Amino acid sequence: MAYEQITTAFINGFFMSLVLIVAIGAQNAYVLRQGLRREHVSAVVLFCAASDAILITAGVAGMAQALKGRPVFATALAGFGALFLGAYGLRALWRSWQAGALQAAVQGAPLSRATVLAQAAGFTLLNPHVYLDTVLLVGSTGAQYGGSLKVWFVAGSALASALWFSALGFGARWLAPVFARPRAWQMLDALIGGTMLVLAALLARRALLGA
User: Fold this and answer.
1) What distance in Å separates the CA atoms of residue 81 and residue 132, rounded to the nearest whole number?
2) SS3 string of the chain?
3) How confident is the model over 153-181, as pLDDT tens digits?
4) Are 184 and 15 in contact (CB under 8 A)?
5) Whole-angstrom Cα distance, residue 141 to residue 43?
């Protein structure tokens, strides 16, 4: 297997996962909150990263089985992914013109590890966008890779998730002032939007070549 193919699969998985995870939302705000409180940060980061890895793996494995022997379906799915990513990218670019900030309240009595993980599970698993992003979008994209390239795609995706949640949780003291400024999120959304549009173009190319 060519080194270039492995690198491409890994990098595509990494950036696709990263641009979907990095957004203002309840899960990120919760991880930031726990980081600011310095309360069970390792457990929260590990849970969120592991959840993403499991869901992405399930998506790649499940979608891979669905795509096996169905080239027309695979092409249609790539086209859908391109449209979805394109819309998501344009939405991120639109957000870059708006004012938004990631705030995390730190008041309240200390919580037990079980309570903190239960709350993390709620913010993670009860969010429909988590399944849309990890299982459907990332999973369907990774499923289009052949053989062990799927493993490298999942590895890249899982690494992006782990790095982001680690930075958010353990670097909360430094990140909070940055992400509390609307300008920082506007710049980040612009970067996310541009990256998503590039990924959409790559998926569209794959769909056209598969047609």
Assistant:
1) 11
2) CCHHHHHHHHHHHHHHHHHHHCCCCHHHHHHHHHHHHCCCHHHHHHHHHHHHHHHHHHHHHHHHHHHCCCHHHHHHHHHHHHHHHHHHHHHHHHHCCCCCCCCCCCCCCCCCHHHHHHHHHHHHHCCHHHHHHHHHHHHHHHCCCCCCHHHHHHHHHHHHHHHHHHHHHHCHHHHHHHHCCHHHHHHHHHHHHHHHHHHHHHHHHHHHHHC
3) 999 999 999 999 999 899 888 877 877 77
4) no
5) 29
Q: How confident is the model at residue 2 (pLDDT cuts 50, 70, 90)?
A: confident
Q: How many Å apart are CA 199 and CA 211, to the nearest integer? A: 18
pLDDT tier, 103 (very low <50, low <70, confident <90, very high otherwise)? low
Contacts for 194 with CB less than 8 Å, ≥ 6 apart: 89, 93
The b-or-e profile of 112-150 (16+ CB within 10 A means b, else e) is: eeeebbeebeebbeeeeebeebbbbbbbbbbbbbeeebb
Per-residue model confidence as pLDDT tens digits over 15-64: 888 888 877 667 887 888 788 878 899 999 999 999 999 989 988 887 76
| This prediction's pTM | 0.73
